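In this notation, each integer encodes one residue's backbone shape. One such record reads:

___
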Amino acid sequence: MLGLAGLAFALAACASTPAPIAAGGPTSAPVARPYEPSAPPQVADYAARLQCVPFARNASGIEIYGDANTWWRQAEGRYPRSSSPAPGSVYVIRGYNNPGRGHVSVVTEIVSSRVIRVDHANWLNGGEISVNVPVMDVSPENDWSEVRVWHIPGGHWGGRIYSAQGFIHPFSLQMAAAS
């Protein structure tokens, strides 16, 4: 029983299942679907049993280890960090209502100034790999500091607003300085 509780806690370290946006919700939510019908957001592998960190490290090549909530700090002085998304960058989101939690995902596409798509693992807390997932910037300054994430099972924007630290770009500052 204790082992199951530990497993549940470990899997919950990446994110929480978002709630749907109620009718008449935020005006910043676009009406049109934020993806191409030929490449919808989907769970690509329910049986992967991955956490977000090893998935992001493998998909991006960014060699950071440890909990997702430590990536932003660990990247300082090692990798470029910014508030601007770029394909291949790792997006670092703080845990909902708990600074001890976090999540990392890999940007795959810039859809617009307010929407990107990401691939990530364990967003739904089952160790699954999800691909083509829209993320919408809802921050007042359009700086990607507050976002909503598409809820694949419900087919809508999640109801929670997540705080974000920013984007870690996949080339080492030491390698850039040596060039």
In short: The radius of gyration is 16 Å. The beta strands are 42-45, 81-82, 90-94, 102-110, 115-121, 129-137, 146-151, 156-157, 162-168. The chain has one domain: 2-16+39-178. The domain at 2-16+39-178 is CATH 3.90.1720.10 (endopeptidase fold (from Nostoc punctiforme)).
